[in-house]
Amino acid sequence: MPALKKYRCDLHIHTCLSPCADLDMYPRALVAGSIKAGLDVIGICDHNAAENAGYVMSAADGKGLTVFPGMEITSREEVHILSLFENVEPLYTLQKIVYEALPGVNDENVFGCQAIVNEHDEVEGVSEKLLIGSTTLSLETIVETVHDLGGIVIAAHVDRESFGIIGQLGFIPDTLSLDALEVSYRTNPAEFMKKFPELSRYPFITSSDAHRIEDIGRAYTVLEIRQPTIEECLKAFGGSAGRRIVEP
Amino acid sequence: MTLADIAKKLNLRVLCCTDRLDRVVSGGYVGDLLSDVIANSRAGDIWITRQSHRNIVAVASLKEHAAVILALGKEPDDETLEKATDEGVPLIVTNLSGFEVAGRIYELLTRS
Predict the structure, then answer these.
(1) Nearest CA in chain B to A162
(2) ipTM higher than 0.90?
(3) CB contact, 8 Å: B81 with chain A?
(4) Chain A touched by B72 (CB under 8 Å)
(5) Class assignment of domain A5-247?
(6) Tell me, what CATH number does B35's domain have?
(7) Which of A110, A133, A162 has the CB atom closest to B35's CB atom?
(8) Ordered DSSP codes for A62-82
(9) A10: which strand partners?
(10) What digits encode the pLDDT tens for the residues A119-150?
């Protein structure tokens, strides 16, 4: 049995690319905030976009922080789904698919700025797409596509009435092969799991859904794994080979 | 027909922006999927919904709705009320269901 260690993971953090996130959430600051919060692993999940994920990875290089590049996709049912990958290539493939299915143009004055910023704090541009909007992709398509690309699929903030799968659909379809359910920082995960015993077959995690620096790590998941990789996280979710979710 | 006329005739509780009740109401839209409301509603509509989060203010602003009505007694989040006040979007709460309030407003608008 290989040596397993505990890793503190916040798998749902937004950058300044998301219109609702602070402009302070540029890669270098986000990385510094994550280290300050004592995190070992973070997941970068902007709404329907991934342009900053690679820059966060570069900013974290050599700093002892693992970054999973990902995306928070809005399905046509207005359910938020987190996708996380080991590296950016499959994420960029997903980006093309999501952008093709995402209508609308952003209005900065109404929804906020969508800034693409690199690891040197330089603004590379803005995303013109309506990132706050919904894609035309169904939940099933999203789950299948992310899995085909080798990513993890997590139903975001299932305790939230808006944009959470239970709030939007009323239930979680049996046929959806979700890797985990995320309970937001707003809710005590243990209480939520007690309230919904029928969901006990799913692994539960919690994350910050941080849109501001000070919110990074306000909720996190502790995984006991061999090393911080997507494969190990999936083992922890499945409780296989000794890997497990320690908290929540 | 103005927002004031409708609010008075249906005895609706206006939570903010009472200085904007002179807005003309030209139609209505019922919906909880923001993407649907953005795509299909029009300027001058009264938007009837059960969503209470702050994004409804952004949508109502963007689409130039006359007002947002929260049906079945749904109270807006504090953030939502604050944002609506800042942006000048009248928020109304009614105990009527979406079906009922939409039906009554539709009747008022088509009769006038």
Answers:
(1) B51
(2) no
(3) no
(4) no
(5) alpha beta
(6) 3.40.1390.20
(7) A133
(8) TTT-EEEEEEEEEPTT--EEE
(9) A42
(10) 999 999 999 999 999 999 999 999 999 999 99
